[in-house]
Amino acid sequence: LPISPVRRPRHAMIKFGFPRFTWDGVFVAACILLVAAIVLGGASRQHELRLAVVELAALPLLVLGVVALVNQRIPAVSRFALLLLVAVAALPLVQLLPLPPTAWTSLPGREEMVLALNLINAPPTWSPLTLAPDKTWRSFLALIPPVAMFLGVMTLKADSRHRLVYALLAAVVVSVLLGTLQLASGGTQLYPWRTTDAGSVVGFFANRNHLATLRLMAMPFTGAIIGRALRRNAEKDRLEMWLAVALLALLVVALGVIRSRAGIVLAVPALLGSLGVTWAASG
C-alpha cells in the first residue's frame, strides 16, 4: 500500500523572525565569578568581607560545574587534573583532622601549647594538625573560586570558552586603562582600596604584584588566539590575530610600567610559555 506523507499542522510551519537564545548557566555563572574576582578579588588583608563575596559568587558555578561534570563523561586526559585538584583542595582539610594527644604533642612547634596545658593542670585533648584552624579554614574557602572556575571551564563548550577568554582579555584592557589614569592623576581618588600602593599602577587591585600576575595570566591566552588564527589562515581572523599581537606587546610594556620585580622576572617564562601555546594552537 502506498504510504501517504505525514501532514504537519499548519501552526507547526509558522516561523517567527526572532532569534532563539539558549542560555548557558555555567557560562553566565563563570562570567559573574570572573567579574567579581577582578573587581573585588584584589583586596588587601583588611577587606575580608569583600573576599567573602567572591567566594559566595563562586558557589553557583561550583554547583553547576559539578552537576555538569557528573552528567558528562570525563575525558581520560582530564582525570589526572581532577585528582590533582581534589588533592589541593583536601590539603587544608587534612590539617583540620583531630589527632590524639600522643600524636600532636610530639610534633615540632607544640612545646608552648603543651607547657600552657601543664601550667593549668589540663590534660591534652585531641587537637588538629594546624596551629591556626581559623586561618586554615580561610585557606580552604579561598580555594572555592579557582576550583569552581576550573570545573566550570572544563564543562563549557569551545565557543563558550572562547567568549570567556575574550571577557578576561577585555578586563585586562580595562585594568590597563585604569592603571594609566591612576598614574596620570597622581592622587588616590582612582584607587579602589584604602590600603594600597598609592602612586603605583594597581588597576582594580590593592597590590601592583596582583596586577602583574593578571598580565602574566593573560599572555598564554593571547598566544592561543594568535595560534588559532594562524591555523585557520582566514581573512576574517587576521584582524583578531593582530589585535592579540598588539595586546601581547601592551602586556609586556605594562609590566615595566607596573614596576613589579616579580612580574618582570616571571615575564620571560610567561613569554616562552605563550610561544609554546601559540605553536601548539597553530597545529
Strand content: under 5%
Secondary-structure element pattern, one letter each: HHHEHHEHHHHHH
Distance between termini?
Answer: 56 Å
Output the radius of gyration.
Answer: 25 Å
Mean pLDDT: 85
Could you give the order of strands across the largest sheet? 1-2
Helix-and-strand structural type:
mainly alpha
The low-pLDDT segments are 1-6, 8-22
Largest sheet: 2 strands, antiparallel
**Backbone shape:** globular
Q: Mind sketching the topology for me?
A:
Blueprint (H helix, E strand, L loop, with lengths): L24 H16 L7 H24 L4 H20 L2 E2 L1 H4 L6 H9 L7 E2 L4 H10 L1 H12 L2 H28 L22 H25 L2 H24 L2 H21 L2
Antiparallel strand pairs: 1-2
What's a concise summary of this model?
The chain has helices at residues 25-40, 48-71, 76-95, 101-104, 111-119, 133-142, 144-155, 158-185, 208-232, 235-258, 261-281; strands at 98-99, 127-128. The protein has 283 residues and is mainly alpha-helical. The chain is built from eleven helices and two strands, in the order αααβααβαααααα.
Describe the protein's architecture and organization.
- There is one protein chain.
- This protein is mainly alpha-helical and 283 residues long.
- 68% of the residues lie in helices and 1% in strands.
- It has a two-stranded antiparallel sheet with strand order 1-2.
- Helix 1 runs antiparallel to helix 2 and helix 2 packs parallel to helix 7 (144-155).
- Residues 1-6 and 8-22 have low confidence and may be disordered.
